[in-house]
Design goal:
single chain, 343 residues, mainly alpha, 2 domains, two-stranded antiparallel sheet, 4 strands, 63% helix, transport, membrane, Mtc, citrate transmembrane transporter activity
């Protein structure tokens, strides 16, 4: 009897220990964000999870285990002792690797978690000094090609989208980026008032307006159909209220502002920092360190800029019904509705 009581007590202690192993983790909610999305800090922590590059090294076996754990939770067959932390980790892995609509694996370079590791070499190339016409065209083309593939791989796949829309957005982004970058470089080269040092410094900042304008062009062209057809708006209970063109304009404006803010620290801070570091005795004595140091500076700027930029607006944005079409306002008693802004 005593042995049985001791065993039961040990089992209870073990269960309590497992339950308390993740006291800092909030209660798990399938398909919901771990962090509150009403504050900038909550969104920032949420997107840090989404872009975590460690998920690139998750094995096929670990992915299957994560998916199975979530399936067990969904069907109420979860084994005893599984903590909230384990469930949040499993959902993070699944969301980082599998497309939410097709449930297919996203090619590694085009995952959000791969955006910084695979995008940093491109940023370094964009910021290389003494760019030729050919190198300017190459790096702008490569940057917009990578962006277009990331956009397509992480698209909303619930509705079929014609390939022509993707091609149109891709060509528009590449043409605008290359045209602006080449045009600004030509103007700088012809500016006789600049000293060679000033001309080199100005050239380093040329990629920002080119990339920022191309990003806006990419968003508008890739999602122009939303402006024509509207996007779904939902009430507080998640019920579909209707399709709103006004909400679509808000969504595209917020996304465009994010795409302008994103390259700002990435393409402005590194040139400013490198112009100071190049004057140090260390780099002047060891010019071979210039490229590795610039790569580290770009990586740090990229790692900070991406979560900050995409945290500016919540992905599920809220808007008052009085600002929408009259038929939308009449279709619900809710004071506000929400819509998916997209990334």
């Amino acid at each position: 009897m005593a042995d049985t009581a001791t065993t039961a007590s040990a089992a209870a202690a073990a269960a309590a220990s497992a339950a308390n192993a993740s006291t800092d983790a909030p209660p798990f909610q399938l398909g919901k964000p771990r962090f509150q999305q009403t504050s900038f800090y909550g969104r920032f922590r949420h997107f840090l999870d989404i872009i975590d590059p460690r998920t690139l090294f998750v094995t096929e076996r670990r992915l299957r285990e994560a998916v199975q754990l979530l399936e067990d939770y969904k069907h109420g067959t979860l084994r005893p002792g599984v903590t909230n932390e384990q469930l949040w980790s499993a959902q993070k892995i699944k969301q980082a690797i599998l497309h939410p609509d097709t449930n297919e694996k996203i090619f590694m370079p085009f995952r959000m978690s791969g955006y910084i590791p695979f995008g940093t070499p491109i940023v370094v190339g964009l910021l290389l000094p003494n760019q030729t016409l050919a190198s300017t065209v190459f790096w702008q083309w490569l940057n917009q090609s990578h962006n277009a593939c990331v956009n397509y791989a992480n698209r909303n796949a619930t509705k079929p989208s014609p390939a022509s829309k993707f091609i149109q957005g891709y060509l528009g982004a590449v043409i605008s980026a290359v045209s602006i970058a080449v045009g600004l470089n030509v103007l700088v080269q012809k500016a006789n008032k600049f000293t060679p040092a000033t001309r080199l410094l100005v050239q380093r900042f040329v990629p920002f307006p080119a990339v920022a304008s191309a990003n806006v062009c990419n968003v508008v062209l890739m999602r122009y159909g939303e402006l024509e057809e509207g996007i779904d708006v939902l009430d507080g209970d998640g019920n579909l209220v209707g399709s709103s063109k006004i909400a679509a304009r808000h969504a595209l404006l917020e996304t465009a502002l994010t795409r302008v803010a994103l390259p700002m620290p990435i393409l402005v801070l590194p040139p400013a920092i490198m112009s100071m570091l190049e004057k140090t005795a260390l780099l002047q004595a060891r010019p071979r360190l210039l490229l590795p140091v610039q790569s580290l500076v770009c990586l740090a700027a990229f790692g900070l800029a991406l979560p900050l930029a995409i945290s500016l607006f919540p992905q599920m944005s809220e808007i008052e019904t009085t600002q929408l079409e009259p038929e939308i306002a009449r279709a619900t008693s809710s004071r506000t509705v929400v819509y998916n802004k997209g990334l």
